[in-house]
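About this split. The held-out portion is used to measure sequence recovery: a designer receives only the structure tokens and must propose an amino acid at every position. Recovery is the fraction of positions where the proposal matches the reference. Here is one held-out target exactly as it appears in the evaluation file.
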């Protein structure tokens, strides 16, 4: 019996040594910020990139697509692999590869090399993001997990605000390649942060061997959890609504309503700030108010914004004030939906934290890559497709919460899962 107790307590001792520190949380925030920074910083330079590399606008846009595909695949593969081999070394390797790929982007002689390097950059960045999230899931649970993930989402929401502004400033002061060199510098800083602040959170006794077969078994077990899939749908559909906004807001506000680029940037920043503040408020409410209720509040607000936008687009010429209010409500609501949905999804599969985070990240980034081009199918002169996507994504999110992730009858788990 004493041997069994010792065997059971060994992983616990290692887990206690790997503590959830402020430095660790800050590093994970840093890791989650790399995707919007690596994307948004060079978006203002698209025309210049096309000119310098003798590429078409479509080819330059494809560098975003390859990045998102890499990001989705990196998360899908990185999580299960880290469940088998541990977190820290794989995380460090991913950050190094991402940094090297960013250097290749900065030095690229052609658009083809840029596309390939962006895929590798996205793959390694997604790998790093999912492992960072898995580290948090390893070390936190219950209300603390929800609180920490909301803080990460909230503070990480600063990156979409800073990315375009920083990229525009870099473009004004130097060439577009400097945007990628800036990501290289951030990558080096990230390597240092991982070395200093991120412990090995998954002891050998808790790892899952068995190669690809074990990965497949873990994937099937995760996908078989109805409530987990419901919360993945909550979070992924929320991301779809966000990218419907990101893909079309410039056309709706500038082309249709005459807003200047500066005014648009201010409005974009205000909406991102609303989402950030909502996520931080949700973090403070964790353990006080049922997380499902917070998510539902955000979903109702987002649905109201989508319906109002559709009514305005069909019958009132999409007036500027209505658009500004609807965009702000939509984005603020996402701060209540996405992080909480992701946290509850992770709580449903505590025995497979890496695989659970991988599937969540994969669905989220696939939603981003699919919704963005669909939102622009209507052209620059109508907001109807965007409004329909806002409504559709929100309805799907509500189906995930109220149908797939409906509460179980087991009173012993209700408090934890709610």
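Reference sequence for scoring:
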């Amino acid at each position: 019996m004493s041997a069994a107790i010792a065997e059971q307590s060994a992983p616990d001792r290692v887990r206690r040594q790997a503590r959830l520190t402020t430095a660790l949380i800050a590093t994970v925030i840093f890791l989650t910020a790399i995707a919007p920074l690596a994307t948004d910083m060079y978006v203002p330079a698209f025309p210049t990139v096309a000119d310098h590399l003798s590429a078409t606008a479509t080819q330059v846009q494809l560098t975003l697509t390859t990045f998102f595909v890499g990001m989705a695949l990196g998360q899908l593969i990185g999580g299960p692999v880290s469940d088998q081999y541990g977190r820290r070394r794989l995380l460090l390797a991913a950050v190094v590869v991402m940094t090297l790929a960013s250097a290749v982007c900065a030095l690229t002689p052609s658009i083809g090399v840029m596309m390939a390097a962006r895929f590798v950059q996205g793959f390694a960045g997604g790998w790093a993001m999912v492992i960072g999230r898995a580290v948090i899931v390893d070390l936190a649970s219950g209300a603390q997990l929800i609180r920490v993930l909301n803080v990460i989402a909230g503070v990480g929401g600063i990156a979409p605000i800073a990315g375009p502004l920083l990229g525009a400033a870099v473009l004004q002061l130097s060439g577009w390649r400097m945007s990628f060199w800036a990501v290289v510098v951030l990558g080096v800083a990230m390597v240092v942060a991982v070395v200093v602040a991120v412990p090995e959170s998954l002891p050998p006794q808790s790892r899952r061997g068995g190669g690809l077969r074990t990965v497949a078994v873990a994937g099937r077990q995760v996908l078989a959890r109805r409530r987990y899939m419901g919360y993945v749908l909550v979070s992924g559909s929320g991301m779809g609504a966000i990218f419907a906004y990101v893909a079309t807001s410039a056309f709706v506000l500038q082309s249709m309503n005459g807003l200047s680029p500066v005014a648009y940037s201010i409005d974009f920043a205000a909406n991102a700030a609303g989402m950030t503040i909502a996520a931080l408020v949700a973090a403070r409410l964790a353990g006080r108010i049922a997380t499902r209720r917070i998510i539902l509040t955000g979903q109702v607000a987002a649905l109201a914004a989508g319906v109002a936008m559709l009514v305005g687009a069909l019958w009132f010429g999409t007036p500027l004030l209505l658009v500004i209010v609807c965009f702000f409500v939509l984005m603020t609501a996402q701060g209540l939906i996405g992080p909480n949905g992701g946290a509850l999804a992770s709580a449903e599969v505590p025995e497979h934290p890496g695989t659970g985070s991988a599937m969540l990240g994969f669905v989220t980034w696939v939603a981003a890559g699919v919704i963005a081009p669909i939102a622009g199918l209507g052209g620059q002169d109508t907001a109807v497709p965007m409004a329909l996507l806002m409504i559709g994504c929100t309805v799907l999110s509500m189906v995930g919460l109220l149908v797939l992730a409906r509460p179980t009858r087991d009173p012993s788990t209700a408090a934890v899962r709610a």
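Annotator remark: The longest helix spans residues 226-255.
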